[in-house]
Amino acid sequence: MKISDLGLDPTAFVNPHDFDIVSLKAFSKLEKGGVTFLTNARRMLELPNVELALIIIREKDIKYFKDYRGTLYLCENPRLEFIRISNKFLKESAKPNRVESNIKISNEAIIGENPSIKSGTIIAGKVRIGDNVQIGHNVVIIGPCSIGNNCSIASGVIIGEKGVGVERDENGLAHSFPHIGGVIIGDRVEIGCMSSVACGTLGNTTISSDVMIDVRCHIGHNSSIGRSSTITAGFMGGGSVKVGEFCFIGLNSTVINTVRIGDNVTINAGSTVNKNVLDGQTVAGNYAISQTAFLRKTLDEIKKYGD
To answer: What is the reported pLDDT for 307?
Structure first.
């Protein structure tokens, strides 16, 4: 793949050279044929001395590159542009997808075009998988389940197992609630290794398109995750949790059963959320409250002990 194949704005180049892209590199490791980015040129310790390379920078940082002989690309968000370029390059240079041996796929399963399924994976029951889906090693997918196009399911993920729902009788004995629902996953969803998505009880557990779920997360039964939300490592979601669109949930956070999270919400790392969160709010703490209230409470505690 050449620079000209990336479909970038030709007017945003400085000192353009069209060359074969060889690698994606950190700024300090830039080499011939490499592509990198820099979000803050003031932190630059040394200017790279590589002519056939591409550095993506902010337009206002061009003053730091007066002596650079290579190619620059100017944009508002270098990190985002680097991600886009990386995805194009990696897709072009990737090896053809294939289905490895030592996997078990149900006769009821429907697999789309160009799949990549690693060894040890089990696909059981009525499962429909879209096109260009990548599934890692030792994944378990239990139907009924539908997975959209261009998804990535990392190694060790379990989708469609039952969760825990109980009702106690007059003697205090727990009776398990039936789980006969499924899992519906949209397009371009990424699920990190060792995560689990429980099936619904009478309905479905739903993950909308463009959701990113990090490693060792749990999505409880009957839950729904809104479009383009990001869930980082260690998240624990109870049953029937609803997360809105464009949310960000920080590391090792917990959302208790049936809680509703609005759109564009940020949940800070380590929070335990036991109440509904309105659109646009940022919450923190255990139990989570608005970030402003959390900081005020923390300062009050510091002053109290300081006195």
So the answer is: 57
Scored b (16 or more CB within 10 A) or e, 273-286 reads: beeebeeebbbbbe
CB contact burial 246-271 (16+ within 10 A = b; e otherwise): bbebbeebbbbeebebbbbbbbbeeb
Q: List Cβ neighbours of 307 (8 Å cut-off, separation of 6 or more).
A: none
Q: Answer yes or no: do 205 and 235 share one domain.
A: yes
Is the link from the previous residue into 287 a cis peptide, with omega within 30 of 0? Answer: yes
80, containing H or E segment: helix 78-93
What's the CA gap between 131 and 151, in Å, rounded?
8
CB 191 within 8 A of CB 208: no
Whether residue 37 contacts residue 81, with contact meaning beta carbons closer than 8 Å, is answered with: yes
Q: Within a domain: residue 144?
A: yes
Higher-scoring residue by pLDDT: 290, 22: 22
Separation of first and last alpha carbons in the chain: 65
For the stretch 76-109, pLDDT in tens is 999 999 999 998 898 777 666 688 889 999 999 9
Q: How many CA atoms within 13 Å lie on the side-chain side of 165?
A: 20
What is the model's pTM? 0.83
89 and 182 co-located in one domain: no
Same-domain pairing of 133 and 191: yes
**264 and 289 belong to one structural domain:** yes
Q: What is the pLDDT of residue 241?
A: 97
The H or E element spanning position 237 is strand 236-237
The residue with greater pLDDT, 295 or 201, is 201
Write out the catalytic residue numbers.
221
